[in-house]
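User: ok so my PI wants both of these folded by tonight, can you help

Assistant: No problem, let's get them done. Here's the first:
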Amino acid sequence: MLKFASICPHPPIMIPSIGKNHLAEIKSTIRAMNELGNRVKEEEISTIVIISPHGPVQMDAMSINGSEIMKGNFLQFGDDTSMKIENNLDLVRNIKKISEIKNITTEIVGDDIPLDHGIMVPLYFLKKHNPNIKIVSIAFSYLDFEKHFEFGEAIYEATETINENIAFVASGDLSHRLNLEAPSGYSPKGKEFDELLIKYLENNEVSEIMNLNSELVEDAGECGLRSIIILLGTLSSLEYTFQKMSYKGPFGVGYLIGEFKLLKNN
């Protein structure tokens, strides 16, 4: 059963051994991530389904890691912090089965696919007080937004077949073009995109998110919109409110943290 849902950013700089002297600039971001970790503990979550933009993204299929044990590290960021975590293979199989019934192509990827930082950065905080938690690691695709929303609906149906408390996490940063120092260069559309998306989330305007102007999305240089759309599909049969816990953009990238407070779970 789905008990918890959130949006999380994934800058490796949030990891203390990587961020070091920059941690003060994202103090509120780190505080909010630790609060989410406590919420996962409070809800007695046993499995986190997490969608990353940085996994094995395919043009026409959603990718689900099928390894029994998944591993990853931050060596590419100059840090030897590593992670090993158990997969919830029952949930993986159910997501694939229900997705195929809904005509959504999914592919199970194997042992040679390591966990990426889009998965590991949120997990660093979310499993801090939950060391035995399992995950399901998913990468989105380049299919249209509607298919991603439908995939979220399939994931929700799959969580209802599992007799345990499930969390869903949409991993993704917002615009990468907020200022002149931004990694993808500056665009005034970056701030516009972030403000619009947060407003639509707070007002539960799902249709507005699904129909965001494609040029605006492209100019913003975001990486998390498809993750968020899958999450919105997952919540589509539930009543909820969105609580923005933190939003910062000190390095030219928008870091949004928010929890969807579930008011009714069928």
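One down. Here's the second:
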Amino acid sequence: MTENEWNYVLCKLNDGMDVKLLIDGYEVELKIVKYGISAAAVIPYINGEYKSSWLINDCEERKRFYQTITGCIGNREYHEYKAVWTSIRLMRIHFERQNKEIELLDS
């Protein structure tokens, strides 16, 4: 995607509107949801679905479209997976690193 297309996505999401992308053959709809008391976040729906099992099981959807948070408690490393993106910039970086082709479907 071009920088102008990413700016379009950012503007639409900031205006509370959903955006559709085609990412490596997956149709991904970015939906704005209420997050916390007064914040908003983005949840990717893949091929029209959101499944909590993608956060539990190791799968392509989790790897490609959801956040991985890594940390340590004592000497133990842990990984937490979240479907909710509170930063569009970080979501974009993740999408570009984990996928080859990203195309804007609505403009």
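The CA atoms of residues 11 and 17 lie 9 Å apart. The longest helix spans residues 3-14. Good luck tonight!
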